[in-house]
Amino acid sequence: MAYKITEECISCGACEPECPNQSISEGDSTYVINPDKCAECVGSYQSSKCSEVCPVDACVPDPAHKETKEQLLAKWRKANPGKEPASGTY
Ligand code: SF4
Ligand code: SF4
Questions:
Q1: How many angstroms does the Cα of residue 15 sit away from the middle of ligand 2?
Q2: What confidence score (pLDDT) does residue 77 get?
């Protein structure tokens, strides 16, 4: 399930460099997550890194993007060509 950033976002920028899939960018009023790239951190971490670093809990799972682990891992592979996923993360 891709994550999304809510209106609580204060645009601090902390999440952007932490995303292993380069899914986060600065939007007009908040930072935004590209649901086509966010893999819920599957392949890199055991839990969502953006949600871990966000000071205002603005990074949350988006129920509009339900996906299987296989689909999430496929997104990770696309974002990290030539690499192997970290064990225990998928
Ligand atoms: S959950 Fe992980 S992959 Fe998705 S936007 Fe956050 S840091 Fe990036
Ligand atoms: S870490 Fe949280 S508050 Fe900071 S830019 Fe990301 S979503 Fe917004």
A1: 6
A2: 97
